[in-house]
Design brief:
By secondary structure, this protein is of the alpha+beta class. 25% of the residues lie in helices and 20% in strands. A hairpin with a 4-residue loop joins β3 and β4.
C-alpha cells in the first residue's frame, strides 16, 4: 500500500527501490510525528534532526485524522544523536518523509534537500 501511495506523487525516483528488502521502516505514531516535524522544519543536510516543540505539535496534529491502527513508514528514524542512516526514496542528496494510512485515508509528506 505504501508504494502505491508514493507512486501517486511520482515516488520513488531513487536508483534502488526503497520498498524492497525492508528499506522502509515502520514507525509508531509518535515516531512518525517526529520524522514529519524533522522533514517539515529542519535541514536534513546541516545540523541535528531536532524539530521545535511547535513543529512537533503541528506534526502530531497533522496525523490525528488517521485512525489509531494507522500504519506509518519512513526511510529512516531521524533521531538526534543516532546514526543518520536512511534509504533514499529520491535521487536527491537527502530525502525524508512519512507515509501513513489507515482503512480510509492516506497521507504522504516527502522533502528533498541538496547540500
Amino acid at each position: 500500500m505504501a508504494k502505491t501511495i508514493a507512486g501517486q506523487v511520482g515516488l520513488p525516483t531513487a536508483a534502488q527501490d526503497p520498498f524492497a528488502n525492508g528499506g522502509m521502516v515502520r514507525l509508531e505514531r509518535s515516531e512518525a510525528a517526529h520524522v514529519l516535524a524533522v522533514a517539515g522544519a529542519t535541514s536534513l543536510a546541516y545540523g541535528q534532526p531536532l524539530p521545535s516543540p511547535g513543529a512537533l505539535k503541528e506534526a502530531k496534529s497533522a496525523l490525528a485524522d488517521l485512525e489509531g491502527d494507522a500504519i506509518f513508514l519512513s526511510n529512516g528514524h531521524w533521531q538526534a544523536g543516532s546514526s543518520q542512516g536512511w534509504n533514499p526514496v529520491t535521487a536527491a542528496t537527502f530525502d525524508c518523509g512519512v507515509i501513513g494510512f489507515d482503512d480510509e485515508r492516506a497521507f504522504i509528506f516527502w522533502v528533498e534537500e541538496e547540500d
